[in-house]
Amino acid sequence: MASSNNTPEIALDVISPVLASTTEDTPPASHNIKGADPFLVAFDEPYDADNPKDWPKGRKWAVTDVLSASGFNRILVSTIMAPALSTIAKELHMNATESALSLSSYLLATAIGPLFIGPLSEMYGRQVVLHASNIWFLVWNIACGFTNTKELLIGARFLAGFGASAIYALGGGVLGDIWRPEERGRSLGVYLLIPLLGAAVGACLTLAGFPAKCLRMMTNVRQARS
Question: Residue ranges of the Major facilitator superfamily (MFS) profile domain (predicted)?
Fold first, then answer.
């Protein structure tokens, strides 16, 4: 009976040092959270100059304005040639289907582009992809301004639309990176409102009598400045 009464005490004497050593070797749970995901970017300091959400308000609005201007230019290009389609069709000897395709090919590319641009931004970063797409858009939009065949116009419009789609795929993500949730409403309002004006401005410029090629070159100048 004595041996049976001492058994729990012996077991506790053996288990307690093991539990103590295990507890000492195990780091706190808070240390494991950051190490659980090697790709997790966390900012522990109350202010970090490398954290876009801690940037000065002026810098945040500068980024927002650039994104809004880029979106304005992209939608401006999509509609700027619509009132001049009949003139362009006569110059390049296009039928009704081909003239409609020269306009809609740009819009088709803006729908396809985000399928590729979104994953590329996760691999190389939004800034790199946005700059590359701006150059791509500028090159092919210049080609639209100097085109003298209907095939080149349709192809250049499609490729320009592919580059233009980057702002639609990545603009919201950039704003989410730099603005905190409670500050994001006004910046999103500006980002969504200004591009909508591009559709109206583009049609008004064409109806005001600007030649089609001059309008296409004007959009190139705006893109180069932004």
Answer: 63-226
Which tokens is 84 given? 């001049």
Is 111 part of any domain? yes
The answer on pLDDT for 18 being more than 50 is no
Query: What is the per-residue pLDDT for 205?
Result: 67
Asked if residue 1 belongs to a domain, the reply is no
Question: pTM here?
Answer: 0.68
Residue 168 vs residue 81, higher pLDDT = 168
Q: Greatest CA span in the chain, whole angstroms?
A: 112
Compute the residue count for the chain. 226
Q: What's the CA angle centered on 72, arms 66 and 73, to 5 degrees?
A: 90
Structural domains in the chain (count): 1
CATH number, domain at 103? Answer: 1.20.1250.20
Tokens of 38: 């090697």
Q: How far is CA 189 from CA 97, 172, 179, 195, 198, in A?
A: 37, 11, 13, 11, 15
Residue 192 in domain: yes
Using an 8 Å Cβ cutoff, are 92 and 149 in contact?
Answer: yes
